[in-house]
Amino acid sequence: MAKNLKITLHHGLVNRKPNQRATAQTLGLRKIGQTVVREDTPAVRGMVNVLRHLVTVEEAD
């Protein structure tokens, strides 16, 4: 069974680098407090790593 990650945006994207804004949009994060659930893959882990100071991540099933 594949694991999932629950990703929550806690800080805004104003005055962030363009690659950080694009990564957040790719994950589906637009507003502060918004939460998305994504499959735990190396690609998603890499995107979370780019935004590690803006998001919190939890394991979800």
UniProtKB/TrEMBL annotation:
<dbReference type="InterPro" id="IPR005996">
    <property type="entry name" value="Ribosomal_uL30_bac-type"/>
</dbReference>
<keyword id="KW-0689">Ribosomal protein</keyword>
<comment type="similarity">
    <text>Belongs to the universal ribosomal protein uL30 family.</text>
</comment>
<keyword id="KW-0687">Ribonucleoprotein</keyword>
<dbReference type="InterPro" id="IPR036919">
    <property type="entry name" value="Ribo_uL30_ferredoxin-like_sf"/>
</dbReference>
<comment type="subunit">
    <text>Part of the 50S ribosomal subunit.</text>
</comment>
<dbReference type="Pfam" id="PF00327">
    <property type="entry name" value="Ribosomal_L30"/>
</dbReference>
<dbReference type="GO" id="GO:0006412">
    <property type="term" value="P:translation"/>
</dbReference>
<feature type="domain" description="Large ribosomal subunit protein uL30-like ferredoxin-like fold">
    <location>
        <begin position="5"/>
        <end position="55"/>
    </location>
</feature>
<dbReference type="GO" id="GO:0022625">
    <property type="term" value="C:cytosolic large ribosomal subunit"/>
</dbReference>
<dbReference type="InterPro" id="IPR016082">
    <property type="entry name" value="Ribosomal_uL30_ferredoxin-like"/>
</dbReference>
<dbReference type="GO" id="GO:0003735">
    <property type="term" value="F:structural constituent of ribosome"/>
</dbReference>
<protein>
    <recommendedName>
        <fullName>Large ribosomal subunit protein uL30</fullName>
    </recommendedName>
</protein>
